[in-house]
Q: What sequence folds into this?
């Protein structure tokens, strides 16, 4: 059984704290066209912007980062994985966001060889297969930490995108056959233990001093409930040694259909925001019914280190992390550009400190490049007419990067692409949070005397930082 007494007391305190403050207020949102290009090209597989499997605002350096995942086609098409540095204006008084612009695209390399999004082949060897899902910047070194779903793995890269090291993945989360010990990193075939396929380290956070990184499995492991499990794991890594030092149990909403966690954001060493969602909403191959997209505040203090505990074993005793009531309901706010429909894949979440002490929380979606994921090396662009009551019923598919030889997704009849249709956009939402409503937040701290510290000290506000970033890119 799960011990619930201390967990209940901590959760009750979180609930009381939440009740004393207003919910973050939705300010505005942006729908960024799905055909937007990054800095490497324009085609779907070599330059279409991969929206936001992860978002990170680095207040130390005044930089925005948006992570692209393994590419179009869900691991069936070769794609050089990458991260985008972009500019975004944030109004200091209101938190309104505007003027999204890609500044730089950085590919990920291992010894000069691009890490690619193809599923591992052979399936028991990761090699250079990479499905990046979480991204943070180490406040002291400026290096990138990126979590991967295939492993699940945690990688560290330098500022040029070259792999510096791989962290040591705990044995219990590696997808494997518990009898033979052989892993299958590409699918669940043959596995009965460890993370589920495409459910690896989805969320990633770093402590304000950079000492610890926290990687979160998207859902329960195969040997802890599988598709019906409600408890997943957060793995705490020491960034100095690259080894895991603790694991914590996180209980998801049992009501969320296709539930999973998509983002983890550090408030301090023990408190975090978690983005939890189901697989419903406006997305490629999804359905509109009953979308659930929620942000919670959690606290690891008092939670059991479950590194050596089977979470669903009979008689198991542990305390899960404390979890607040819903902090932000992302599904409550919609954009006219999407016909006021809720996007399926909310996966990015970051905190922006404003000059006056208040905050903006920015959430972002992953649009899967608006490309099918049909387990084949033949994929198609997917176009929607968002004004329709059911955009899926009228959606059109075309060969990738073509606007002819198109057909209706439903029924397969030939279709003519018109201006009424568009690729699925990437979406950003901004939520204003007064300082009093985000207690405990600790700003990332750079190395004393570092260039990053001097830069941070010289910035008078978030708007100034972003405008400077854009000016540098234009030189």
A:
């Amino acid at each position: 059984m799960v011990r619930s007494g201390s967990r209940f007391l901590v959760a009750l305190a979180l609930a009381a704290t939440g009740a004393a403050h207003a919910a973050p207020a939705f300010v505005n949102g942006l729908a960024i066209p799905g055909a937007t290009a990054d800095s490497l090209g324009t085609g779907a597989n070599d330059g279409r912007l991969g929206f936001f499997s992860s978002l990170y605002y680095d207040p130390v350096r005044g930089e925005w980062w948006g992570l692209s995942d393994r590419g179009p086609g869900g691991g069936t098409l070769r794609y050089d994985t990458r991260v985008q540095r972009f500019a975004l204006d944030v109004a200091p008084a209101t938190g309104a966001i505007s003027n999204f612009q890609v500044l730089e695209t950085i590919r990920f390399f291992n010894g000069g060889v691009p890490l690619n999004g193809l599923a591992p082949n052979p399936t028991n060897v990761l090699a250079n297969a990479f499905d990046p899902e979480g991204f943070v910047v180490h406040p002291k070194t400026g290096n990138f930490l990126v979590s991967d779903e295939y492993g699940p793995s945690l990688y560290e890269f330098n500022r040029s995108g070259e792999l510096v090291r791989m962290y040591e993945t705990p044995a219990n989360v590696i997808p494997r056959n518990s009898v033979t010990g052989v892993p299958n990193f590409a699918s669940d075939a043959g596995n009965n233990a460890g993370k589920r396929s495409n459910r690896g380290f989805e969320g990633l956070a770093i402590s304000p001093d950079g000492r610890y990184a926290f990687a979160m499995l998207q859902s329960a492991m195969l040997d802890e409930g599988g598709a019906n499990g409600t408890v997943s794991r957060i793995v705490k890594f020491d960034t100095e040694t690259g080894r895991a030092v603790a694991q914590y149990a996180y209980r998801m909403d049992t009501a969320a259909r296709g539930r999973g966690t998509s983002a983890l954001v550090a408030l301090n060493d023990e408190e975090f925001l978690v983005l939890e969602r189901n697989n419903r909403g406006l997305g490629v191959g999804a359905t509109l019914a009953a979308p659930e997209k929620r942000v919670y505040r959690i606290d690891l203090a008092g939670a059991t280190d479950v590194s050596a505990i089977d979470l669903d074993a009979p008689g198991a005793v542990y305390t899960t992390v404390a979890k607040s009531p819903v902090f932000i309901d992302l599904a409550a706010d919609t954009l006219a550009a999407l016909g006021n429909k809720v996007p399926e894949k909310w996966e990015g979440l970051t905190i922006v400190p404003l000059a006056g002490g208040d905050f903006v929380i920015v959430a972002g979606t992953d649009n899967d490049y608006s490309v099918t994921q049909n387990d084949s090396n033949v994929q198609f662009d997917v176009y929607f007419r968002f004004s329709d009551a059911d955009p899926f019923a009228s959606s059109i598919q075309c060969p990738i990067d073509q606007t002819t030889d198109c057909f209706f997704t439903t029924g397969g009849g030939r279709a003519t692409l018109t201006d009424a249709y568009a690729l699925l956009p990437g979406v950003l939402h901004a939520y204003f949070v007064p300082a009093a409503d985000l207690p405990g937040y600790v700003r990332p701290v750079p190395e004393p005397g570092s260039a990053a510290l001097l830069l941070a000290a010289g910035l008078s506000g978030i708007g100034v930082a972003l405008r400077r970033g854009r000016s540098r890119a234009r030189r």
Remarks:
- Residues 93 and 170 are 44 Å apart (CA to CA).
- Residues 5-474 form one domain.
